[in-house]
Amino acid sequence: MKRSVIILCVFVLSICLVSAIHDISPSFFSVDEKISFLYDITVNNTDAGQTANITRVNVIIPTSFTFVEDSNGTDSLSIFTDTSPTLSWINLTEYVINGSEWKNFWFNAIASTLGNYNIIITTINATGTFDYNISVEVNDSTPLSIEFTAPTPTHNSNFSQSYIPINVTATGNISIDTIIIYLYNTTNLVSSETDSTSPFFTNFTGLTDGTYYINATVNDTSGNTDSTTTKKIILSSTILCTPDWHCTNWSECIGGIQIRSCVDFNNCEDISTKPPENQSCDCIPDWSCTEWQPKNCPKNETQTRTCEDLNNCGTNEGKPSETKSCTYKSETSLLLIIIVIVVIILSIIGIIVALIIRSKNKNFGKTNSSNQSPGGYPSPSQTPPRPPRSPPPLQRQPVKRPVRKYLPRKPIRRYLPRKPKAFQPRPRYSNKSP
Asked: Is residue 84 assigned to a domain?
């Protein structure tokens, strides 16, 4: 008996440990495609106990969804990590959600494809890992539409003809299934045409005079539908309204075309007699070009410019060239040329100055030679006067001393040069006796 009680207690305890109770809400989201949507998810930890504390919450979004960066948030104590498509809130040291409490986790994402998807919520605590699904329906954000396009007649048109051309265009993100164009008279359906492509054109022919009504419907593969307004068209061999067309003057010739606007003052809505609103013309191009760029020749030795025809004739006839070759001059060679030019100019100036100084020196020499005395010195009359002396600086008064008298020196004896003696010839001696 005692053993049975122990086994029962162990069994109950094991059930309490592994059967975590976590409520996830909401269970469904309905969103529009290609539009950012805020997903706010509540996790309620209704399981009590220390081992029930949730330490990690993972949100796995579909691969066709795009997480909007920095749009995440929570009111729990956790750290967020983005490893798309998995978004995680983690707190391993304490807990993200305590036992018996609830927390919110939110983020923005964009669904790019229509359809139904699941967001997987994973909660982790000491007892295990638990997964939950939230359904997401992605709806078409671009509604299906259909409208009349040219050359469909306008409402209340009046024509003298036996046919009605109709053209419609349908748009939507989902594949078009069927487009139907209807033609009625005042009592019954006259005819209809069906197709699955857009735009859809048809022409109802062989019609008799009378009043007709047209409209069109479209549906896509998802069951969405749309329809046009109904237009009234009158066919009559006898025109009940005479258009009164008034047109503006022709515009300038642009691209070989002139245009104008014509309006029916009677509003007959009959364009069969409408004057032409465009015509061809002879266009003479008027070319205007920018400056050559770059201003200095680049290394590739090619300069460019842009030429535009101010008359928009749509032809290149007579268009100036927009590229040209040039000679590239580096900054070093240009600096060298400037230095050489400066040296040459300075040399020429130096030569001119030297010639002027030399010429002045020659003239000054001639003037001095004419004013010099015979001895080679300038005459006293030509000697320039000395500038006045500046007063001597103040000096200390010398002490008066007795004057020493010196005896006069003996006069210097000067010797006059001797006079040369007169030449006296010596007597000749002879052997003859007297």
From this structure: yes
